Amino acid sequence: MSRSTRVAGLASLCAVALMTAACGGDGSSEADDASTITWWHNSNNEPGKGYYEQVAKDFEADHPGIDVQVSAMAHEDMVSKLDAAFQSGDVPDIYMERGGGELADHVEAGLVRDLSEDAADEIENLGGSVAGWQSEGKTYALPFSVGVVGFWYNKDLFEEAGIDAPPTTMDEFYDVVGQLKDAGIAPVSVGAGDKWPAAHYWYYTALRSCPQDVLEGAVTSLDFSDPCFVEAGEVLEDVVAAEPFNPGFLTTPAQEGATSASGLLATDKVAMELAGHWEPGVMQGLTDDGKGLGEKTGWFPFPEVEGGGGDPTAQLGGGDAWAVAESAPDEAVDLVKLLLSDDVQTGFAENDMGLPTNPAAGGAVSDPALAELLKVRDESPYIQLYFDTAFGTSVGGAMNDEIALLFSGDATPQEVVDATQQAADQEM
């Protein structure tokens, strides 16, 4: 299905929904009740879950007659439910948008509200971070957390293995993997069962192998003919061949439970994991003491690919933004504006829930590793949006599927590129 066909389908479903209730409703039988605001998010562990529940209660207290129905769910569950909601045209009033091609589809289908005027002050305060959620000069979502992906690691396990400093090149990375194995420590966990954590490796090897102009051009042209994309897969083949990953990594989930990739890192079962700025908050919810790795938490950027054409200081990243369904009540916009306020973003930072976008909250990031990430984010010359987000669901999904097959030894680097290009050609 081409992108235009898919968008037309979404728009048709939205039109049908408008005949019976409200397109972009709340996902429940109470969609026509303007006093109800439905809000979906993925902070399903403490302290984030409780923090957002309190924010909702405070909003209700200041807005008599408004009932905020909060649904906190695991990230993968939320993504699946949102996909279904967009296909049916029955979208929650407030939800998380990742930007890029996905947002473009939702905008074209008329499912998301333009916030340019209603949230003009907040948009000005956020500055350049809103760019990923804009289309044709209009802003459709307000980013509340923007960060970069890198390796989170257990400082104690590194010390136990005699590792003095994190690796900065791929050769050094392989040396670290060897040292950890020699010490009887599983080097790396990856939630390949959910595909996107595995795909992040190819995204990063492409970012290290391809010049910035090639990557930026591919986002608009959907042309993956540059040899650097195959070269990225060859680097990833070498990573997989080094056997750094936890046993059963092909079916390991990303974040759910103690045996997930995040759980293995949080409980000292592995030394490191490639993940985004959300990792400390996720790990907190996977340990009995609610602290995750605590003071043992370290972070380092993805290593340089020797001879690669990409900038070794560029980062892979992105973020999450609050969007409002097109037909949501006006009070939903007020709640989103509250979520980007100085007070709420400061609490967000203090609870280690992510990297705030409101400049007033930057100094409240309490976790030293997250504070380091904030510095890396702000100093990076270029941040590449997650490929599956940048290219949209169809192309990104095909890419992720084939990368997962490369991890299992069932696809070659060329086949990853071919599958991605085939999906892209269908979008044109």
UniProtKB/TrEMBL annotation:
The keyword Nuclease does not apply. Keywords: Signal. The keyword Signal applies. Residues 1-24 form the signal peptide. It holds the Pfam family SBP_bac_1. SUPFAM superfamilies: Periplasmic binding protein-like II. This is Extracellular solute-binding protein. It comes from Nocardioides baculatus.
